């Protein structure tokens, strides 16, 4: 039954995420990468995304980052292959993507792209700083070093990991992130009292 048929019967279409959907079976990237929303989006808070929303946000951001690095010939010192494994790069690129969507929205002022390009220049320098601090490179990756404050446990030794297939790693990373979020959601709803709706 189509969404139109569903609405005709007085029901809302089922927008729940398909539990079998994963990044491996996601549709091929579109030929263009223009805005897909009816209105410019607001900022994305990655800490609060549901499993369903995170999956789609990851796929769209990954597609856009690939377009960005190819269009502007960006080296790995600005956008490394494993940017998805470094939160500081994720947040920076996500903010830049949202800024781009808003700047190139058809309803936006015609001079908005100039503002985005100016901010893009600033962002490239910040990305270089983040990449240099993180230690991730074109052919190898390691988690960003964390400064341990007095009283905190010592971190495990950090070792470089060779990058053999970036796209496979991205898919595995997103699947794990989506499953982690799905488990958090499951645990939360399982803790609710079905009669009162309060946490038991």
UniProtKB/TrEMBL annotation:
Annotated region (Disordered), positions in chain: 1-39, 141-160
- Residue ranges annotated as compositionally biased, kind Basic and acidic residues, are 1-19
Q: What is this protein called?
A: DUF4913 domain-containing protein
What is the species of this protein?
Answer: Tessaracoccus bendigoensis DSM 12906
